[in-house]
Amino acid sequence: MSEILQTPQKKKVLSCIQPSGMLTLGNYLGALKNWCTMQEEFDCTFAVADLHAITVRQDPTKLRAQIYSTYALLLALGLDPQKNTIFIQSHVPEHACLSWLLSCNTQFGEMSRMTQFKDKSAKHANNVNVGLFSYPVLMAADILLYKPDLVPVGADQKQHLEIARDIAIRFNNLYGDVFTVPDAYIPKTGARVMSLQDPTKKMSKSDENLNSWVAILDSKDDIIRKFKRAVTDSNANVHFCEEQAGISNLITIYSAVTGKSVAEIEKEFSGKGYGEFKIAVGESVADTLAPIKAAYDEIIKDKKALEVLYKQGAEKAEYVARKTYFKAMKKVGFVL
Ligand code: ATP
Ligand code: LTN
């Protein structure tokens, strides 16, 4: 009997990033760097989560520019639009549609426990909108439409991913098998890059203190200046520990960009001052980001070429999303 040779199916990966400002070193080390390595091994879908961005007030002109720029940056990182599906979330209406079905199967109580909602509603006290509250349901829809096995995210998104899993399990139990229950994929180093000005808070592109974050597209001078100004303690001892949150954050960053272990870094800088260490961190970060910035500067010049790619991406994404969405609709009892 002839043997049928079957190529094993690649595992599926899905992740998204918000175009809510300049993407930071935190986004890069916590998420985007992983996307690049994963595209070699997995069947990947990546999106610019523009619907998520309007949970906080956005200026329309700036938002449009940020969506373009975020899409271009994904390409500049080396993500291949032919090999992967790379699209803009709002171009695939099934995200918002599935989000409604899921909302009606999600409890108010479980949403109320989300720490990001608590943080963001405190920060934007004059605009605590319903979208900000139910945002994890839209995120669950983003994920579940594509039936991924793995979702690469930074540590701050772990709670949202757990909710997406809970929603999927509950829906499947109620209506029959529709969704795959995905696993989080959180990097070992760089999963939580902290603010350079307050190392107890995560580095965030929406932080108004511009010295607190490094943008992927910052110039070398700006990057080094921001690291020189990074808040550290007065111990002057390059040592990783809980009490030295500022210097530990810099060690994490240096480790993530150089691949050196914490012990190697402590040895390399033993007896040296913080000043020297901060410059070394700044330079290695700038060297890591420089080729991305150079590629970005080229890609962003050609809006027409970008448009072709994001439209193709949306078509590919919608083909998959529509199937899952209609299956969910049918199971819930809608007439198709
Ligand atoms: P905002 O700062 O506007 O709240 P954000 O940067 O937290 O936005 P996204 O742009 O959607 O949110 O994040 C994209 C990815 O980057 C997510 O996987 C998130 O976990 C990761 N990420 C964001 N900030 C950090 C950080 N400081 N350290 C590590 N990973 C991060
Ligand atoms: N909520 C995420 C961005 C995001 C996402 C997703 C991540 C939106 N949809 C789906 C992974 C999968 C954030 O704010 N970092």
Number of strand elements: 5
CATH level 4 superfamily of the largest domain: HUPs
Distance between the termini: 44 Å
Strand % is 5-15%
Structural class: mainly alpha
Describe this structure in words.
It contains 13 helices and 5 strands. The mean pLDDT is 94. With 336 residues, the protein is mainly α. A 3-stranded parallel beta sheet has the order 1-2-3. It has a two-stranded parallel ribbon with strand order 4-5. It has 2 domains: 210 residues, Rossmann fold, CATH 3.40.50; 89 residues, Tyrosyl-Transfer RNA Synthetase (Orthogonal Bundle), CATH 1.10.240.10. Bound molecules: adenosine-5'-triphosphate (ATP) and L-tryptophanamide. Adenosine-5'-triphosphate binds next to helix 1.
Give a nutshell description of this structure.
54% of the residues lie in helices and 7% in strands. With 336 residues, the chain is mainly α. Helix 3 crosses helix 12 (274-299), helix 4 (94-103) packs parallel to helix 13 (303-332) and helix 10 (245-258) packs across helix 12 (274-299).
Topology at a glance:
Elements: E1 12-17, H1 25-41, E2 43-48, H2 50-53, H3 60-76, E3 85-88, H4 94-103, H5 108-112, H6 115-123, H7 130-144, E4 150-152, H8 158-175, E5 183-185, H9 220-228, H10 245-258, H11 262-268, H12 274-299, H13 303-332
Parallel strand pairs: 1-2, 2-3, 4-5
Helix pairs in contact: 3-12, 4-7, 4-13, 7-8, 9-12, 10-12
Bound molecules: adenosine-5'-triphosphate (ATP) and L-tryptophanamide.
